[in-house]
Structure formats: C-alpha cells, structure tokens
Amino acid sequence: MIRFALRGLLGRKLRTALTAIGVILGVALVSGTFVLTDSISSAFDSIFTENYKNTDAAITGKAAFELSQDNAGTAPPFDQGLLAKVAELPEVGAAGGAVGGQAQLIGRDGKAVVFGGAPNLGFSVDPARPEFNTLTLVKGAWPTAGQVVIDTKTAEAKKFATGDTIGVQARGAVQRMQISGLVEFGAVSSIGGATLAGFDLATAQQLFDKPGKLDQILLAAKDGVSTQQLVDAVQKILPAGTQVRSADDQAAEDAKGTSSFLTFFRTFLLVFGGIALFVGSFVIANSLSITIAQRTREFATLRTLGASRRQVLNSVVLEALVTGLVSAVAGLFLGLGIATGLFKIFDAAGLTLPNNGLVFRTRTVVVALAVGVLVTLLASLRPAWRATRVPPIAAVREGAKLPPGRFHRFRPLGAALLAVLGVALVVSGLFVDGLSTGALLGLLAIGVLLIFIGIALFSARLVRPLAAASDPVARWSVLILSIVAWPLFSLPYWLLRRGFWGPGSMASRLGGLLLGALLNPVLLVIVALMAVRRAVTSWQPEWPAEFPGVLSDRPAVGIGGQNSRRDPHRTASTAAALMIGLALVTLVATLGAGIIRPFEEAVDKIFSGDYAITAQNNFSPLPPTVAAAVATVPGVDALSSVRGGQGRAFGETIQITGVDKQAPDVLRFDWKSGSQATLGELGADGAVVDADYADKHGLAVGSTLPLETVAGKTLPLQVRGIFKPPAGGSPFGSVTISTSAFDATNPQPLDLYTFVSLRGGVNAANTAALQQALSTFPNAKALTREQFKKVQSDSIKSLLNVLYVLLALSVLVSLFGIVNTLVLTVFERTRELGMLRAIGLTRRQVKRMIRHESVITALIGAVIGILLGLGLALLLAARLDEISFAVPTGQLLLFAVVSVVVGIFAAIWPARHAARLDPLEALQYE
C-alpha cells in the first residue's frame, strides 16, 4: 500500500502540487517570520554586546520604580563627580563617563535627517578611552569642542564630508557644527536606519542639557579582579539614584525593550501565518475530498482485491503525510526568500532594520516542519475516513459515489451549534470581567476558530439561494471584465504574435504593433457599444476565428450557474477559504473606520485651539524649548503643552501628564467633577484624574493621592477634578498635575503636544509666523486641527494597510483553492465537457461557463465573509468604548469587486484547460 500511495501521488503531480500550495505559503510565512525576527534580534544583540565590549560593569541612573518601555519617562542622570570616586577604587582598572540622548541631524535643505522611524542617537565619545569606544573612526578625527562625528551612511545619503558644517538639534535650537570625522558602529554590519552623532563630553552635556551630569560610567576591572568583585566594590560607594550591573546584565537590560517589541512582532506575524495555514487546511480538505470522490472506483477495486479499510485509510493518510512533508520543506526554504524580501521592503519604505545576515535556527526548522505536516494530516482525516466507506461493489458501477455517513443528516445542526458555541466563547471573552490577558486571547482565538468552522460547514445550506442571487452579478461581472480584458490583453497578444513572429520586415512588425496600440482604445469603445447592443437586442456578433470572443451565449453561463449548485458542499468548502480571508479583511476595515471616527471626534472635543505643534514623525515628544519659541510669535492668545511621563501610585506604574495655567484656553474636558478653571489652578499639590482611574481606586474630589515620581520623590496630591476621556482617547494620563510640579520632579521633561490659539485663528499669516518660529527646530511642525486629525488618522491607515497586505496572503491561498477545485472538477467532468462540445458548445462558451462558476463561488465566499466580518466587528465595538461601529461601505464594495476579480483570475487556467479538451478523447475518458 505504501508503494501504491506513492505511485498515486506521482501519477497526480498537478493535483498534488495545487493541494500543497496552501501549506507551502502558510509554512513560508511562519518560517520567514522566525528567520526575520531571529535575524533582527541577533543584530540587536550584537549591537548591545558591542556597546559593552572591553567593559566589565556599568553604572547608570536608577528610577524609583520600574519604567515601562516607551518614550515617556527616563532614569535621571547623576553627578559627574562619581566618576573620580569610582576610578580611585583599587578594583577598577579603567573608568569612562558618558551622556546621551536624541540628537537630530539637519540636512542641507534645513530638514531633519530621518530614515523611517529609526532613532537619531547622540552621545559623547572619549578618544582617551578607546577600550570603551564602540565607534570606529573611518575618516577624519575625533570631535573637539563644537564639533561632531556622524555615521558614514548619513554622510553618504546626504552628501556630507569631513570639514562640512551640519545642523544638530537636541534639547535646544539647531546648532551648527563642523564634521570632524565619519564613523561606523564597531563590527556590526548594519545598525538599520539609525543616525549617529558623537561629541566630546562637554559639548554633549551642553546639547542634552545635562551640565555636570552623566548617564553612564563604564568600568573595566583590574587584572585578577572578577566581575562580581568589581560590582560589589562599586556598590558600596554608590549614591542614591544610581545602580551598577555587570556588562552582560546591562546589555540585557538595554535590550529589554527591543526584545519585548520583537516578541510582539513575531507573534503578530505568526498569527497571519496561522491564518494562512488555517485557510490552507480548507483547501487541502476540499482537494482531498474531491480526489477521493473521483477515485471511488479505484478504492473499490482495491477493496475487491482484498485491501482492508485500515489499509485504504493508511494509504490516504500516507499521501497526506508525504504531501505535508514536501510542502513544509518547500515552505521552509521559501521562508528565507520571504525574510529577505521583507528586509528589502522595509529598506525601500525607509525603515532600515539592523541586519547581520539571515539567522536560520534549528527551532525554525522543527516548528515549520511540524506545523506543515500536522495541518496537512489534520485536514486529511475526514477525507481519509470517507475513503474507507467505499463499498467494493462500486468497482463495477458507472458513476458510483461515496455513501453519506451515518451522521450526515446531523451536519447542519452540528455546524450551527459549533458556530453558536464560538459566538458564546467570543462574547464571554469580551464581556466577562476579571479575565487575564492570556485567558481573554484564548477565548477569542478559539471562539473565532469555531465560528469559522461552523459557518463553513453550515454554508452548504446557503449555497443554492446565494448562487441564485449571485448569478446575475456573476453574468455581468464576467461580461464587463471580458469586454475590458479583451482589447487590453488579448488584442496586444495577437498583434505581438502576428507582428514579431509572422512574416515581414522589422518595420512592418513595428508598424503593426503601433497600429495595435492606436486601435486599442478604439476597439474598447466598439466592443463596449456592441455589448450594450447585445444586452438590449440579444444580437450576437460573429468574430473572426483568430480573435477571442467577448460575448457568450446564455446557455453557457446557465450551465456554469447550475454547476456551482450541483454539489453545495464542495462549493461551500471552496468558498470557505475566501470567506475567512474576507471576513478578517472586513473586520480590520470596520475596526479601522470605527477607530478613526471616534479619534477625530475626540480631537474636536478636546482641542479648542487653532494649531498643534508636533514632531515631524507625528509621535516623538519634543523638548519644552520648542513651545518657548512658539510663545514668542506675535498674536499668541494662549499656548499650553502637555508633558508626558510616568509615575507610581497605589502600587502600579501609570502614565502621568502635566499642563500649565493656560490649558483651559486651548483644551476642553468633559468634567464629571470640576470645571475648566480647575486645569489652571492645580498648583503644587493639585491633580485631576480620569473617571475610570477614580472609580478603580475610589477617588473623589478632595481625596489624597500620593504620587511617586521617577526621581524618588512622593507628591502628596489632592484630587481637584475628575474628567471623562472621549471614546477616541486623549493625550492625558491617568493623573494630570501642573507643569511646575511635573518639571520639579521629572528630569529632562518632554512635551507630547503643544496647542496654540492665535488672534485671527487659522490663516496664512499665522501659519507663516509659526513656521518662522520653528525654523530653528526643524524636527517640529505646526498643524491646523484638520491637518492634525489627518496625519494622526494616516498613521492608523498605514497600520491598516500593513494588515491588508498580511491578510492578502490568506486571500492568495484561497485563490489557489478555487483554482484547485476548478481544475479537479474539470478532470471530474471531462466526459461531460466532451459531450457538451460534441453537441455544439464552443471553446469560448466553455471558458465562459468555467469563469461563471468561479465568480459565483467567489461571490458566495465574499457575501458570507463580509457579513461575518461585520458581525465580529459589531461585537468588538459593543465592548470597547474606543471603537464605534462604522460600516466602510466603499471598502466593502471594493472587497466585493476584488472577490469577483479573484474568481476571474482563478478560472483562467482551468477554463483554458477545459476549452482545449478534444471532444472525442474526452468522451473516452475514464
């Protein structure tokens, strides 16, 4: 039976290849995800390790509590005098101090140099301590006072050389500095799109507003002193607000934020790989079901010759095992190409990621192979079990079919119950309070999975009415696409074939092509007019034999519509693959519309000023000096900035914000307790909190709120007001205090946004005045309220586009599923097609029949998928206040059109194959 199964696979190479495509694509995304994230992680690890080469321990500032990994909140710097004390320790062989921060390089055009979303790093360098210097000087010299070294990539991209002058913006306005040299980061081949700027210590302290302060001291132990001995010795003299770690521990701490992001990024991509595999499992199950149904007489013959049911089962399972293993191996290595392609896509988009070469770990091989084989085996179980029910007597019967199972009549009820159970799990995950994140995600994942399976199984009952309803749409879709496609594709192909490969001189060939290009739009109009006339008068034009026809007879499309209803289970299973992809795409589109609308409404509710000042990338915080420059603009009626940071209260780390006395003039709150005047009267001990935080901790106006800051100081705050944030979110943290109280206890404060009101409102003169004030801060820009909403919404739309691209893989898998099903049904109906051709059906009509069937199948999947996606979005919108339920009608219509196009493309090859069948040979086909 093993030899029989393997020969069967080799005898059906085309069918096996089409069946395997879904697994190959899914495994490729899983493999590519692991390779991509492992490669990025390895590059980052190399960067952090290189950062502490020749270092045994590092002293850094210490926040009073564990900070979350974001831009808000940093550990405070410490006094520079600690360097001399540490250097005197007998265990210390060498010590070097450094400061760092964000340093924006300014190009010759006066704009900030940015490569995607990569950071702009600035730090001090000490040539006297080369053992601690991670930079390699490629050209020029190390910087002295007022000079800078920049990385070679920035220099090459922006045409800078040693001796040139470049702008640098850090905590203050732009400063012009001479480029003393060009550097690279140690032995790391690529640090991604980050820009590097190095200064001498005094210059760096001035740029980053850290006079007499250090962020870090690097230590090397004397010979014979262990790392632990060095750490213990330094620990004894450390002042409050500092800490010492070994070099390895410090590198791990620095990498913590990156590791968290990569873990999320890997999980994020693996989810889409899982979706592609899930869709692929439907393709596999459907393909195996069709092939097993087509091999009824074959299995019956085996049973007649003495094969047992177990042997038949093992034969089919072995075929699936081999298919899954080969597919997984192919997908595993295709993943290398996907990872390489993703790196190039990120590069082209300006988001250059660190890369030290592709990393192909054993875990990637094991997981990819295991997933591919298991998915294929699981998808093959039901078809394999069906194969065992073939009765031996079927070997002598013409057109024998598999008998239905004992529980076949309960399938609709079981499918409905499965979908209901899935909905119940989703509702439980969304609306039951107190669930952990893992339990919540588990309930949602299992619930959605059951919903998809239940709907896919139940949809067989919906095929006939949906096919009947889709039939007119499919007719006109095929007609319109044929009208457009014929002059645009078929005619140029015909002219190319006649012009280049036919007789005649080169001049006549080129002339023929030129004539074809000129006639193309004319023919398109002619064909369109003839189509209209055909629709009105049922007139059928006669085309020359060498031209492919564009208009078909009604009998052909009628047969195509009947074929889609002939086997509802097969049609439903084929449409299910597309249904899943479109359901998820619809869900994303609906949620995107539901997020953008509340956000824009939130901006209108909160922002009462005229302009908002943000970073060029729309999300990075800005130093307070930017707001100070804007305040000098003539005509400023009110200006208020929202500081951002972190604090600790009631045993948890929270986001805190700070506002000044002018906040009531440019910001509006929906007050539960308090008033607009409250914002300007917070003073040194006042605070306002959002309603959810107040309810969680039982706070009311007058309550005491002890807030610990990163510097270790506890502020005894009193609640002065409680506000309700709008559904679309707000820039304010759980606790908001005055700017003066915020700056007194938070080192290096940064503004999330600055809001401005000017006399005369938004006009060209005010805009020009703001731009002039910001000319010394190229990393900042002024936006009107509408512009502010647009750029923030565009960032959401960019994320949605990424999701669409990733979900397109599942749609691609479903396209191959439709192709596979159509090819298999062409094989199955070979004799039928031969008979149709024998009684007069033309090749053109055969193609139209297959296309029509394909479009109906795609439309069924689209209708069910869109409705299912809307239902899931409605559940999420009902649970989350930040999301409203908004139907993106235009996008849904686009998705429906795309599904029709998918159906047309899926039918191209099967239709051509069916049309080329020889009628006499087809009539003799077994």
From TrEMBL:
Positions of the MacB-like periplasmic core domain: 16-236, 571-769
Topology class, membrane: Multi-pass membrane protein
Key words, A-Z: Cell membrane, Membrane, Transmembrane, Transmembrane helix
Bilayer-spanning residue ranges: 268-292, 312-338, 358-379, 413-432, 438-461, 473-495, 510-532, 575-596, 802-827, 854-878, 890-909
Superkingdom per UniProt: Bacteria
GO cellular component: plasma membrane
InterPro entries per the UniProt record, alphabetical: ABC3_permease_C, MacB_PCD, Macrolide_Exporter_MacB
Molecular function GO terms recorded: transmembrane transporter activity
Positions of the ABC3 transporter permease C-terminal domain: 271-392, 805-919
Cellular localization per UniProt: Cell membrane
Family recorded in the similarity comment: Belongs to the ABC-4 integral membrane protein family.
Name the record gives this protein: Putative ABC transport system permease protein
